[in-house]
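Hi all, posting the design record for the shared folder.

TITLE: backbone redesign
STEP: 1 of 1
STRUCTURE INPUT:
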């Protein structure tokens, strides 16, 4: 009797183990459930370890940066699923020696098992085997087939949310334009549905458009501490900070925006506090990486959370939207510490030659600035900062604890004359050769505080953005003319990218295992190359979509397709004017820039239509008047002849007279010079 009891007990134990394994298999790939509020509090009470603050960060938060009430720490331990209990019963029953099943029951069990296997496979591909949900719509409004002004709209049912809101710089054919922002018309049309804006990181191409959006629509904004700090600085300049709804989140936090549950995941980039977002809704799970790279030795020791991406891949990812910037570059992106080693060598060389050091880099590259400061401290040099954006970012990053500068190291740019050149480091903007940047003004002798002298070591710690090569080269040439020792990325390792290269992209695709893939953040050639990498890791061609701005992409468990288009152009910002510079204004500006202006001033009698004075001619940007007197005299005769013809034919309408004079003078000037200046007839009545 005792032997029989022991056997039964052992059989029950075996059944429970088998059931547990079955439940674990059945539950694999399901979305993790957020614990109830009480459970979360109990977990904290039991001593759950909170995420560490970055070393040296201050605990004070910027104004308006209260953490959202809806944010909750996503648990790492998977929640139990409903599949566990039935599996346990089935396993136990089988091992307790119950009567054999009938043939019909066996067939039913086989069908059930097949359906479970099919459901599990569907989950692994990002599909949900439950009842069909409404489609998810993803609408890129900027950032595709271009570099910059990134903004993506997610729509599920009556709920919408935004990811990023950036800007870009104008092209060469946009004279006088300061920046370019996305067209917000579709956002404003649906502002009652939009629950919030989540921001991946603090670069201008992801936050630069926020002040212009908030002037029209005060949307709640969520971002990490540094990101919110940088946004706050921009909003303060635009006098929008007091009314803005800013919320600080941390990697691992989850916020609820209507139908969307959004989890922040830490990634590496060229700016601290960058995150990706895992966006859940009833249609499925979508991951948008933002800008990322895989740096195993980052400056702040905060490595990208590949483990979390892998967990989500097991859970089942419907779609992945990933950074394509470096899709044309093979291999891996080098660590930021490579630049630090190069800086160390150059600082030693500058010490030996008693040189002043000037380093130009992106103002937002705080890790780069930190390494420059660290080298300056080691070599006993003071640090001065030049350039408005550099000063702003250094100030904000220092206040929040992301940039650590020992007391007495940082000095005002106006104080550099008090120190010997070999005791100074100047960190400046202008790594892209921007005409109004600090380095550009130094190169052309227009900087008030800094004059380049022979022997200055100038390190340009950046790679020219495509299209900026000529402007950067021009600055380098001018610096060399002044006798400076110029060091740039083509010569030495003084810059590494903040974006993933091909092998990192393939690694991300492999661990996330998305059912659908949409390459984003890049020009067309970059998107195409990234799509090829996705095919290389096994994603089917039909599950990859290269889309464009304004195209509505519909996603369900069964399909991904473009179903509509929405307005998604660009808005030009010129000074305080937003959107008042259109294609006609740009055309006129280009016309003036190419051929100049030719003004014909005529005074006429309003009663008789006779010419009282003129025509007087004014040339601006067309010909030098003193050297073209005969040309101007002949043009005056042509204008007089056109006026005479109007008088003879009885033309008295001022608009018609202007057109005839303009056409006659334009034809004459083109015949004589093969140039077409803008002709501006002005008629004054007396």
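Okay, here is what came back for every position:
SEQUENCE:
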């Amino acid at each position: 009797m005792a032997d029989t009891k022991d056997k039964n007990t052992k059989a029950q134990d075996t059944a429970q183990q088998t059931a547990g394994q079955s439940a674990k298999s059945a539950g694999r790939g399901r979305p993790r459930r957020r614990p109830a509020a009480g459970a979360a509090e109990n977990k904290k009470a039991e001593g759950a370890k909170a995420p560490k603050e970055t070393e040296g960060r201050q605990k004070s938060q910027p104004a308006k940066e209260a953490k959202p009430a809806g944010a909750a720490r996503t648990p790492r331990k998977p929640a139990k699923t409903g599949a566990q209990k039935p599996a346990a019963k089935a396993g136990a029953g089988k091992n307790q020696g119950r009567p054999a099943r009938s043939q019909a029951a066996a067939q039913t069990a086989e069908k059930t098992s097949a359906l479970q296997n099919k459901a599990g496979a569907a989950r692994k591909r990002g599909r949900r085997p439950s009842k069909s949900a409404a489609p998810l719509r993803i609408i890129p409004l900027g950032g595709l087939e271009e570099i910059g002004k990134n903004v993506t709209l997610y729509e599920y049912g009556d709920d919408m949310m935004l990811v990023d809101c950036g800007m870009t710089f104008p092209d060469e054919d946009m004279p006088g334009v300061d920046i370019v922002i996305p067209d917000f018309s579709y956002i404003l049309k649906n502002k009652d549905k939009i629950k919030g804006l989540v921001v991946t990181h603090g670069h201008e191409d992801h936050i630069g458009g926020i002040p212009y959006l908030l002037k029209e629509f005060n949307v709640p904004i969520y971002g990490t501490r540094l990101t919110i700090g940088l946004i706050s600085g921009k909003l303060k300049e635009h006098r929008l900070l007091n009314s803005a709804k800013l919320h600080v989140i941390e990697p691992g936090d989850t916020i609820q925006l209507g139908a969307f549950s959004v989890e922040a995941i830490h990634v590496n980039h060229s700016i601290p506090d960058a995150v990706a977002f895992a966006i859940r809704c009833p249609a499925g799970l979508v991951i948008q990486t933002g800008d990322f790279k895989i740096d195993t030795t980052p400056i702040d020791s905060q490595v990208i959370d590949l483990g979390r991406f892998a967990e989500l891949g097991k859970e089942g990812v419907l779609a992945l939207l990933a950074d394509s910037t470096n899709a044309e570059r093979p291999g891996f992106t080098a660590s930021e510490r490579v630049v630090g080693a190069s800086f160390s060598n150059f600082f030693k060389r500058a010490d030996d030659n008693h040189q002043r050091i000037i380093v130009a880099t992106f103002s937002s590259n705080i890790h780069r600035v930190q390494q420059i400061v660290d080298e300056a401290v080691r070599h006993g040099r003071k640090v001065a900062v030049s350039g408005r954006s550099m000063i702003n970012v250094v100030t904000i990053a220092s206040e929040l604890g992301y940039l650590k500068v020992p007391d007495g190291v940082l000095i005002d740019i106006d104080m550099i004359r008090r120190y010997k050149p070999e005791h100074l480091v100047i960190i400046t903007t202008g790594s892209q050769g921007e005409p109004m940047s600090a380095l550009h003004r130094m190169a052309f002798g227009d900087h008030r505080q800094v004059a380049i002298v022979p022997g200055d070591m100038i390190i340009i710690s950046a790679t020219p953005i495509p299209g900026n090569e000529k402007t950067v080269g021009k600055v380098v040439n001018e610096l060399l003319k002044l006798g400076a020792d110029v060091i740039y990325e083509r010569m030495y390792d003084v810059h590494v990218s903040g974006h993933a290269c091909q092998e990192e992209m393939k690694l991300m695709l492999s661990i996330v295992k998305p059912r659908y893939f949409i390459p984003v953040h890049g020009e067309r050639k970059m998107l195409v190359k990234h799509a090829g990498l996705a095919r290389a890791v096994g994603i089917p061609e039909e599950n990859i979509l290269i889309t464009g701005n304004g195209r509505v992409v519909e996603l369900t468990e069964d399909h991904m397709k473009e179903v509509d288009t929405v307005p998604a152009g660009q808005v030009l910002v010129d000074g305080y004017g937003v959107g008042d510079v259109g294609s006609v204004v740009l055309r006129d500006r280009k016309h003036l820039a190419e051929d100049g202006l030719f003004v014909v001033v005529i005074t006429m009698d309003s009663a008789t239509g006779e010419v009282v004075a003129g025509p007087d001619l004014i040339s601006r940007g067309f010909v030098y008047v003193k050297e073209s007197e005969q040309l101007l005299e002949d043009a005056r005769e042509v204008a007089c002849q056109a006026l005479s013809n109007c008088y003879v034919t009885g033309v008295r309408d001022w608009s018609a007279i202007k057109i005839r004079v303009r056409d006659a003078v334009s034809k004459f000037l083109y015949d004589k010079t093969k140039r077409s200046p803008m002709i501006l007839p002005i008629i004054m009545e007396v």
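COMMENT: The first strand starts at residue 72 and ends at 73.
Let me know if anyone wants the other runs.
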